[in-house]
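PROTEIN DESIGN WORKSHEET
SECTION A - STRUCTURE
LENGTH: 158
C-ALPHA CELLS:
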C-alpha cells in the first residue's frame, strides 16, 4: 500500500470519480429509454432529434432494449473497482459503444456533422473509456489488504 497514497492523505474509495458520472449518465439515459423512449424523437436545445423518422412500435422496442443495456452499465460503472486489467476491458467496451454511436449518427446524416444527442453519448463513452484505461486502481494483494485492515484497526484504537 505504501506509495499508493499521498503523504498524510486518508485512504479514499473510488466513489466520486468519472466512472460514477458515466454511471449516472447511463442510468438517466437508460431510464429515459425504458420509460419515455419517445423523447429521443424530439429536438431539445440546439440538438436535432436522435431519430428523424417517426416512432414505431419496433423502434420503441429497440430503444427500450438499449435502455436495459444502459441500466446494466450504470451499476457496473458505479460499483466495479477498476484496475489495470478490467479497466482496459471496460474501456474497450466503452470505445466500441462510442464508435457505434458515431457510426449511427454519421451514416444517418450522410457523413456530415449535424448536432444530435448521439455525439453526447459518444463523448461520454470516450471519456469513460479514457478514465477506465488511464486511471486504474492498483491490483491489491492479500498482504496489501491485510496491512490496510491493520492500519484501520490501529486508527480506531487511537
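SECTION B - SEQUENCE
RESIDUE ASSIGNMENT:
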Amino acid at each position: 500500500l505504501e506509495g499508493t497514497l499521498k503523504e498524510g492523505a486518508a485512504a479514499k474509495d473510488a466513489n466520486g470519480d468519472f466512472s460514477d458520472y458515466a454511471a449516472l449518465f447511463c442510468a438517466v439515459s437508460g431510464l429515459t429509454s425504458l420509460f419515455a423512449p419517445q423523447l429521443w424523437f424530439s429536438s431539445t436545445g440546439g440538438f436535432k432529434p436522435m431519430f428523424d423518422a417517426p416512432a414505431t412500435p419496433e423502434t420503441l422496442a429497440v430503444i427500450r432494449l438499449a435502455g436495459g443495456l444502459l441500466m446494466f452499465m450504470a451499476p457496473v460503472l458505479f460499483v466495479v473497482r477498476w484496475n489495470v486489467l478490467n479497466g482496459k476491458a471496460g474501456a474497450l467496451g466503452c470505445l466500441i459503444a462510442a464508435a457505434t454511436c458515431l457510426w449511427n449518427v454519421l451514416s444517418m446524416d450522410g457523413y456530415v456533422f449535424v448536432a444530435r444527442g448521439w455525439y453526447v453519448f459518444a463523448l461520454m463513452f470516450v471519456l469513460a473509456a479514457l478514465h477506465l484505461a488511464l486511471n486504474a486502481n492498483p491490483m491489491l494483494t492479500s498482504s496489501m489488504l491485510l496491512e490496510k485492515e491493520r492500519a484501520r484497526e490501529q486508527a480506531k484504537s487511537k
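SECTION C - NOTES
The chain is about 60% helix and 0% strand.
The first helix runs from residue 18 to 35.
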